[in-house]
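Researcher: I'm preparing a figure for a lab meeting and need a structural model of a single chain. I don't have an experimental structure, so a prediction will have to do for now. The sequence is pasted below. Please return the structure as tokens so I can convert it later.
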Amino acid sequence: MTPLTPLERGAKLALTGIRALVEVSEVPRALRHAGAIHLLVNSAGVPGASAARVLGVSKQYVSKAVAQVEARRVMEPAIEAAFDAIELQLFPEE
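Model: Understood. Here is the structure written out token by token.
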């Protein structure tokens, strides 16, 4: 396996912080793994292919995780609020 690129190394570090925030958030336990992927890709701006490499999964897996969270955020206001709170902690000035 080829070494991680600088972007992927940064994504790996970002994922550590994102996972920590998700773990102590109001996000339902069953959605936390997908939620961390969603935040890494959509909020931190890491390309799906890079996220897949960091996670050791396929690009399709990343896409499905992101889509799952997006659908739940639209349908459930409590989940939307939980992710909004995490995003505010991650990116307070945006």
